[in-house]
Amino acid sequence: SLDRHVSPPWRLSGLTNSYVASVPAQQRLGKRCFAGSADAILQSLNLLRDEKPDIVVVVGADHVYRMDFSQMIAAHIESGAGVTLAATRQPTALA
């Protein structure tokens, strides 16, 4: 597809030799599109089953270009944890 063709020069994720896959709405569980972030992940689980990736990073689109995930992934692998989350502290007024 076009996004796989143009992805090598992007290097959006800070991960060398990695691919950033954008996932469009699939409407897999009914007649409506995603009903929020959690529903988007639920309806996209088939992609994980089909591709069987070693590492999966799930982020909102605005984080793809703002964060270098390589350090977080390295820490995740070293820890042996099942899941690793990244977060930043925000003042309550901005939350």
Question: Key terms for this structure?
Answer:
mainly alpha, Nucleotide-diphossugar_trans, glucose-1-phosphate adenylyltransferase activity, 95 residues, NTP_transferase_dom, Glucose-1-phosphate adenylyltransferase
Describe the protein's topology.
Blueprint: H1 2-10, H2 37-43, H3 45-51, H4 61-64, H5 70-79
Explain what this protein looks like in three dimensions.
It comes from Lacisediminihabitans profunda. Belongs to the bacterial/plant glucose-1-phosphate adenylyltransferase family. GO terms for molecular function: glucose-1-phosphate adenylyltransferase activity. This protein has 95 residues and is mainly α. The chain has one domain. Helices cover 39% and strands 0% of the residues. It is globular, with a radius of gyration of 15 Å. The N and C termini lie far apart (37 Å).
**Strand-pairing-aware structural class:** mainly alpha
Main sheet?
none
Considering DSSP H and I runs of 4 or more, what fraction of the residues is helical? 25-40%
Mean pLDDT: 75
Say what oligomer this is: single chain
Number of domain units: 1
- Count of helical regions: 5
Question: What are the segments in which pLDDT stays under 50 over at least 5 consecutive residues?
Answer: none
Number of strands: 0
Strand content: under 5%
Q: Tell me the overall shape.
A: globular
Radius of gyration: 15 Å
First-residue to last-residue Cα separation: 37 Å
Question: Could you state the order of secondary-structure elements as H and E?
Answer: HHHHH
